[in-house]
Write a structure and sequence with these properties.
Length: 265
């Protein structure tokens, strides 16, 4: 330091210009401004609201009965199931139980499939809807995605199993559903972990030859399905394209990426 005034580093560097236009392109917390050393009151209240909404999304129960009725009226037969987690508190503490079906429901599916679960692979696709960590995502987005996806898969001449609506389910519960029904492909639509900018985001996981114990590396994911993210109608087209690729390659996850890379090489 030379001691000259023009060489002194200011203690606070002002933001370069007005960056508020950035807020038109993202729900992330940017350009919030400040009051002294704190957030403005509006930004602070918005934070408290979004935090409460995220907590509610985790603890709330989706209206699966209403979803069931809407799917049935849209020509999509559905079956109600539960995971091995007895209630929401257990579900949040024990992720492993959310990955398994309740034994009586697994038996119901095996009876529905007309197999004891040890039969060979069947050329069918199944859609599983699980509440995951956001009931808001299911209530807001599941119905249009499932109904649209049902039509898109029928256009691909793929036989569909009844939609499985799983309460207290994690992603891997789709493997249990797929194994019980003898599915070739399972599509899991699940409420994603809510954040402070999105509490109603739906995720999609596609797995070839689902079996209990399938690793996550064998899945492909499409996320952020919601208004303000990937719109439901756009998500339907992307999921259908992904299922088509999985069906052709007979693999999913990192193996699908490798198969596509070899084909393009």
């Amino acid at each position: 330091m030379t001691g000259r005034d023009d060489d002194k580093t200011p203690s606070l560097v002002p933001a370069p210009g007005d960056i508020h236009p950035l807020r038109r392109f993202t729900d992330a917390r940017v350009a919030l401004g400040r009051t002294g050393t704190s957030l403005p009151t509006r930004a602070h209240l918005d934070f408290l609201y979004d935090h409460a909404r995220a907590r509610d999304a985790v603890w709330a129960t989706p209206d699966l009965e209403a979803l069931h009725r809407r799917l049935e009226s849209g020509g999509m037969p559905a079956v109600r199931l539960r995971s091995a987690a007895a209630d929401r508190a257990v579900y949040l503490r024990r992720p492993d139980l959310g990955r398994r079906l309740a034994e009586e429901d697994a038996a119901r599916l095996r009876a529905l499939a007309g197999t004891d679960g040890a039969g060979g692979e069947r050329p069918r696709v199944g859609i599983v809807v699980a509440d995951g960590l956001s009931a808001l995502a299911i209530d807001a987005n599941a119905a249009p995605v499932v109904i649209g996806l049902g039509q898109a898969l029928r256009d691909l001449r793929l036989e569909l199993a009844p939609v499985a609506l799983v309460e207290q389910g994690r992603v891997a519960v789709g493997d249990a559903v797929g194994e019980a029904l003898g599915l070739a492909v399972v599509i899991v639509l699940i409420g994603e972990r809510p954040g402070l900018s999105a509490a109603d985001s739906l995720g999609c996981y596609v797995t070839w030859a689902p079996r209990v114990g399938t690793p996550d590396s064998a899945r492909n994911c499409i996320s952020n399905i919601r208004l303000g993210g990937l719109a439901p109608e756009q998500a339907v087209a992307r999921i259908a394209d992904l299922v088509r690729s999985v069906w052709r390659a007979r693999v999913s996850g990192v193996a699908l990426t490798a198969a596509i890379g070899r084909r393009l090489a």
